[in-house]
Design a protein that fits this description.
The structure holds two protein chains of two kinds. Chain A is built from two helices and twelve strands; from the N terminus they run αβββββββαβββββ. Classes of the chains: A mainly beta, B mainly beta.
Chain lengths: ~200, ~280
């Protein structure tokens, strides 16, 4: 399929050159040439679990498992977080203009208490990365990912979008700065905390 | 207080570069947008093609939603349940199949039929989503204490633009003013379809008639009855004098609207003389 498409694009290229050459012979004026390549949309995810300096390909789940207890600070924490690289380059024109996020709460054993669920204990960080350097674009609680709005492909020129998803451990340097942010503590009810992050990619 | 410094870990990790093996399942829909022009009451059937360009199989659920471009009308959309937005075409379109299993590097055609009602007039819109679960955080729960998991769903969409042949494409320009080096104004969609507008411009020196600048402004996506702003900022330094900016708003399908803005530049300031 790729070969066929490449050939098609190559043919268009040859046609443009030939048309341009003909135009030059006919007249020295300027000419407008329109080529309309079908606008497709594609999205690809590469999920990695990051623990210390080890990145591990993660195929099946984004599970933080049973959180570990830090008796000194009285918190539960996860020793790892996740990195999700978003590829938006498809075949030729396969780049969606518009990537957006939404979050739906799942199970929350704290329901009915003053404490929150995964939506306020986890965060999503959006960066533009080139593999060596990250440029921070957004950092929000999972429950507020819709506030990121639309990521436009022009924001990622020279790199690609990467998401970091983690459980907050109380560290101010990794905080979203949101007043609603919470850490897991023994005050939280035990059980499974879950949610659904929906990533949407469309053209304009 | 013991804290794990994720930022430091990230920085260390990035020394290893992007050499991480992939959970590779990419869904590509060939037709990101389907635009058709029909007579009221007309029916058409066609197909769209989806590909799995990855090495893992993909299972997809297909479903409709409605969408609406939102301010500042630069392409951002809000999505709504199917059939809940005015001028939704989702109730008119049938498609098959509604679930798809795509083996690695396979493709599948989705058949759809558009049944335009006899009283249709103007533009109608919806989006067909192809949704896939890429990671399921609900697995692996168990044991004592708090556990956390996040499920991620990804979806790509095909936008449907269904318009009647007798559609009206019309805009009006207003509120033209100069602010420093920028000339701005508003564009109101007075027609009955969502307009995808490409504003093109050139600026000529009124005295010499010589063009001094030309270019393209950001595309606008303006629903019927809505007003979007535009801003023209010359990319080149122009000397003091009087100029005419000619803006052509390409409304697609061979329809365009032209606005002429006469302005004066004196020092760092631009002043609008007239706009029509």
């Amino acid at each position: 399929m790729k070969t066929v498409k490449f050939s098609f694009i190559a043919l268009i290229g040859i046609a443009i050159i030939a048309l341009g050459a003909t135009a030059v012979i006919a007249d020295q004026g300027s000419f407008g040439i329109n080529v309309n390549i079908k606008k497709s949309a594609a999205i690809q995810f590469v999920v990695s679990r990051v623990q210390g300096t080890t990145w591990t390909a993660n195929n099946n789940d984004l599970n933080f498992g049973t959180l570990l207890y830090d008796g000194v600070n009285g918190i539960f924490y996860s020793p790892f977080y996740y990195a999700i690289d978003i590829g938006t380059t498809g075949d030729g024109a396969g780049q969606p203009d518009d990537i957006s996020f939404s979050y739906t709460p799942g199970t929350n054993p704290n329901q009915g208490t003053t404490l929150g669920g995964l939506g306020v204990k986890g965060s999503l960080t959006v960066v533009k990365t080139d593999g060596a350097n990250d440029a921070l674009l957004n950092k929000v609680l999972l429950s507020k990912v819709a506030s990121i709005g639309t990521l436009d492909k022009s924001q990622f020129t020279g790199g690609w979008p990467r998401l970091y998803v983690g459980i907050w451990d109380g560290n101010p340097t990794t905080s979203t700065g949101d007043a609603d942010e919470e850490v897991f503590t023994p005050a939280d009810n035990p059980g499974d905390y879950s949610g659904i992050l929906l990533v949407t990619a469309v053209v304009n | 207080m013991r804290k794990i410094c994720q930022k430091t870990m990230m920085a260390l990790c990035l020394w290893f570069g992007f050499a991480v093996s992939a959970a590779d399942a990419q869904v590509l829909v060939e037709q990101g947008k389907i635009k058709v022009s029909l007579e009221p009451g007309q029916k058409v059937a066609d197909t769209l093609t989806i590909h799995n360009t990855g090495s893992d199989a993909a299972d997809l659920n297909l479903y409709f939603e409605d969408f609406r471009y939102v301010e500042p009308f630069l392409g951002k959309k809000d999505f709504f349940s199917a059939g809940t937005v005015d001028h939704s075409c989702s109730p008119w379109i049938n498609f098959y199949p509604q679930t798809v299993h795509l083996p690695p590097f396979a493709q599948k055609k989705i058949n759809f039929t558009i049944n335009t009602p006899s009283d249709a007039s103007g533009g109608y819109y919806c989006v067909l989503f192809m949704e896939k679960t890429i990671v399921d955080g609900s697995a692996g729960a168990g044991g004592e204490g708090s556990k956390a998991g996040l499920t991620i769903l990804s979806r790509v969409g095909t936008l449907f633009f269904v318009e009647t042949n007798a559609r009206i494409k019309k805009v009006s320009v207003g509120g033209v003013k100069a602010d420093g080096k920028t000339i701005s104004g508003t564009l109101t969609n007075q027609g009955d379809v969502t307009l995808v507008i490409t504003p093109l411009f050139y600026i000529i020196n009124s005295s010499s008639g010589v063009p001094v600048d030309r270019g393209e402004l950001e595309k606008l996506y303006v629903p019927a009855g809505s007003t979007a702003g535009f801003a023209l900022k010359s990319s080149s330094e122009i000397s003091d004098g009087q100029y005419l900016a000619v803006l052509t708003f390409d409304l697609e399908d061979g329809v365009s609207a032209v606005s002429e803005i006469e302005f004066q530049k004196k020092g760092p300031l631009y002043t609008v003389i007239s706009a029509k």
